[in-house]
């Protein structure tokens, strides 16, 4: 469901994107081509800063936002999700936040007030809060990363996780095509 926010902004959704009918997209949200937004996801850009302004939440092309994901932003701060990225089931992305291209964020993870570098893989039940991750970092399951975390204790993304991330993007791109075809049949 597409909704206007209290400041009057409506989402802008590319024709080639698929938004599940149970998802809620509210306010100053831009969804680019071939994006999949799964059941019960909520993407909500409705808070303003002290000056009464807000930045958009942008979901770039070929990205998938899976079931139950919540993307929101504090005080009108920007959120950008890069191209070919996967935000897995029930994760929370809370702005200010930038997730670069080709990133995988695993089930139930929380990302807040950070920049996640290109090609990073954040595994399930992890938290990244207030510390930027450089490109190609692998966050193991159930890892909590905060401002004082030593990034030297985690490794670069192993090739098998990069391949897995690419396969998830491909599978969800197929879902976009399939669900759009079904919607056109009804």
TrEMBL record:
SUPFAM superfamilies xrefs: Trimeric LpxA-like enzymes
Top-rank taxon: Bacteria
Protein name: Carbonate dehydratase
Species assigned in the record: Shewanella maritima
């Amino acid at each position: 469901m597409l909704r206007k926010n209290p400041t009057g902004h409506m989402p802008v959704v590319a024709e080639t994107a698929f938004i599940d009918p149970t998802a809620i997209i509210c306010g100053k949200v831009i969804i680019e081509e071939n994006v999949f937004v799964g059941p019960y996801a909520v993407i909500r850009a409705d808070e303003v800063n002290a000056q009464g302004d807000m930045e958009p939440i942008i979901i770039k092309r070929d990205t998938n936002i899976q079931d139950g994901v919540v993307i929101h932003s504090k005080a009108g701060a920007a959120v950008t999700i890069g191209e070919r990225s996967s935000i897995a089931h029930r994760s929370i992305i809370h702005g200010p936040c930038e997730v670069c291209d080709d990133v995988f964020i695993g089930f139930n993870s929380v990302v807040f007030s950070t920049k996640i570098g290109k090609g990073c893989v954040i595994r399930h039940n992890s938290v990244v809060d207030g510390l930027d991750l450089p490109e190609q970092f692998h966050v193991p399951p159930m890892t909590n990363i905060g401002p004082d975390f030593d990034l030297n204790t985690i490794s670069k993304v192993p090739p098998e996780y990069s391949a897995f991330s690419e396969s998830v993007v491909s599978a969800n791109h197929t879902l976009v095509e399939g669900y759009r075809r079904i919607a056109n049949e009804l």
